[in-house]
């Protein structure tokens, strides 16, 4: 009887894959404390493999050599950032905060009725206690920077070992597909391929979108002679990794700094810039980089971001859209296509 039920279960592909998917979700839930290292390792591995494939189209170099050059360059850039640019960025960030603080301490602003109302509201509300609580949260985040650095380092190491011997990794992994429990690993491979097709494409496209947004925004901010450009560029890049909402969120600090530098006129310039960048992302960059495969209505995008932030915290803002698109593909609602990571077979 049990043997018959087991055979029926194995023959029912839809039920079998549903059970496997639930099992994968359960395992990931149990390993949620390692989610940062898992996601970072996947992102690094995917991007490096895509870069290797791109380079090998033009230059027939051994894949391990390209990988070693990429990681050596990455380590050098990280070392330069920590030893040379990080202190400068930290100093500029402090100056930026001081300039905004000094602006609000300027007695001239009392002549402005808007600032009088804001000052009265702050005095009569509980906003200062909330601000103190926010500072405490910020200090806790600063205390976790060291742990995040360790996570980043281990993710970099793991992705290096995967990519430097990717041919052997893919070859060895195929053995599971012909093992005694081949059905299980075939179903896992089915979901893994779907995951790469959705998550990988979205992350890769979002990186290009973030770089484009950052370059364009930094150029315009440089023309406006805004202070602390490196700090602002990093902020814009990190926020641009959040689909759609990131550009809008960056409007608040940019408008604040713009007002402290050039008044209402600069705020208007910033708002116009944000509208142009948002339109460029929505109507040019998203269709171009996503190839219309993952384009979602803005309503769905914001709902997914809100739910993702609640479920996964900061990571939810970055991975919420890819995960949602993955389930759309699994459910057959919207397929992302057959894009997959190219395996470097020849060395």
From TrEMBL:
Localization per Swiss-Prot or TrEMBL: Membrane
* Entry's Gene Ontology cellular component terms: membrane
Q: Does the keyword Phosphoprotein apply?
A: no
One Pfam assignment: AI-2E_transport
Task: State which residue ranges cross the membrane.
Answer: 20-49, 61-79, 141-163, 198-221, 233-257, 263-284, 318-337
**Keywords in alphabetical order:** Membrane, Transmembrane, Transmembrane helix
Q: Give the UniProt record's GO annotations in the biological process aspect.
A: transmembrane transport
InterPro entries the record matches: AI-2E-like
Instruction: Name the principal localization, coarsely classed.
Output: membrane
Topological type in the membrane: Multi-pass membrane protein
Task: Describe the family membership recorded for this protein in Swiss-Prot or TrEMBL.
Answer: Belongs to the autoinducer-2 exporter (AI-2E) (TC 2.A.86) family.
UniProt xrefs under PANTHER family = TRANSMEMBRANE PROTEIN (PTHR21716), TRANSPORT PROTEIN YDBI-RELATED (PTHR21716:SF62)
**What's the protein called, per UniProt?**
Transport protein
